[in-house]
Amino acid sequence: MAWVLKMDEVIESGLVHDFDASLSGIGQELGAGAYSMSDVLALPIFKQEDSSLPPENEAQHPPFQYVMCAATSPAVKLYDETLTYLNQGQSYEIRMLDNRKAGDIPEINGKLVKSIIRVVFHDRRLQYTEHQQLEGWKWNRPGDRLLDLDIPMSVGVIDIKTNPSQLNAVEFLWDPTKCTSAFIQVHCISTEFTPRKHGGEKGVPFRIQVDTFKQTENGEYTDHLHSASCQIKVFKPKGADRKQKTDREKMEKRTAHEKEKYQPSYDTTILTECSPWPDTPTTFVNNSPTPAPTFTSAQHNTYSVPDSNSSSPNHQGDGTSQGSGDQLHPSATIQETQQWLLKHRFSTYTRLFSNFSGADLLKLTREDLVQICGPADGIRLYNALKSRSVRPRLTIYVCQEPVRSIQLERQDAGNGDSSNGAIYVYHAIYLEEMAASEVTRKLALAFNIPLHQINQVYRQGPTGIHILVSDQMVQNFQDESCFLFTTIKAENGEGFHIILK
User: Fold this and answer.
1) Residue that terminates a domain, selected from 271, 291, 321
2) Tens of pLDDT along 272-313?
3) Tens of pLDDT along 105-139?
4) Which of 101, 300, 341, 468 pairs with 325 at a CA distance of 20 to 30 A?
5) Considering its fold, how many domains does the chain have in total?
6) Which pTM value belongs to this model?
7) Nearest to residue 291, comparing CAs of 162, 177, 99?
8) Sheet-wide strand order for 180-186
9) Cα 99 from chain centroid?
10) What is the span of the domain harbouring residue 124?
11) What ranges does the record list as Polar residues composition bias (predicted)?
């Protein structure tokens, strides 16, 4: 039979109007009499193309169901995921329902289970940069949380916990046999994570996800039972109501044929089953101050700012060297690879690479990393794996001329012998700012000279004249120039001057 129709194609083409009239014709074509709608949908031509999926009657019955008391948008096409609009800071009820059949999961009878509610990004690209996005939000909204639980309104929730480092998640215990409702408040709005251009930007969607766990033999709630989520957008107060009204008015203007391509608006939002969130719940159970990689603030020494006093471009403010000794080796274990990622400020991606050894990570190409981590972090990770340090804008080599060498030089100048046997050891000074103040600062650091005692830095010019080192002079230094320098006391006796030769 040469029919290659799909259900959505039937609906798109408008054939659904004449379906009942066509059923008998289809039955005659197949020689099986008249078919009902359910019979037709059961035919192979309407089956899901992936035959590996289990039949509906074999699908696993979810043990729980979570229902959020907020209406879905009417402007969502058939077969697309529902979208629910929420107001910032408003309390919304999530009903925690026991959906088990008789005999399902008997080990939790009479016991509590733990649920973690999170607000996370829906867009995959934002998920990869989630840590940076949330850090930026935290910086702009100090002391605020992305998600809170309205405790006075909630019913049946026990032992509520919020980790200060987990701003987008709350957890609690509850009894499946009792009426339980958790009232949540989302404080971030969708447009806060949109690059602002000319106003009126479209906000990004979020997801509300609920993960439920049962207690293990050691008393921790780490045994996963069920997960479900839904798509939301968050508006400023009253904004969700206006958006819902706008969508409803738009749908009313559509023709009856166009309306059939869209879902109706439902009074409540049912969270659909999904994979569990990769973060392990032990962070909450143990109330550990060390946050999980994806949503938490990194430790202060993780995001260290390069020290401007450093004479090396690879020197970090936390004292961590980024030299070849920190290179990730192919023989590194999974644990060592995780430590390397944390040490090099890639804590956001420890979850993504949780099963990668050093060899696995090193096999990834630049294109692979850019696709996984995004352009910015992908290139940075690739350069870190290849131990590519940033070249300084200018490098000069400086040596402090010993006093004894100066005296010998003056003595030898009289007899023409310049071989005094002195050994000159130079220090590399890497310049990024290309400023005279940077030269002074890094000379003081390299040669252990108190910075406040350096009055001026001069360069010895023709006929021995002293030329003040300015920003313009530094910018005209040739790369990898060599200098000897001496110190002379200042005229007022306070501090001294440095003379570059």
Assistant:
1) 271
2) 998 888 764 444 433 333 333 333 333 333 333 333 333 333
3) 888 888 999 999 999 888 776 777 677 777 778 78
4) 300
5) 3
6) 0.47
7) 162
8) 147-149, 180-186, 91-98, 64-68, 269-270
9) 34
10) 62-271
11) 280-315
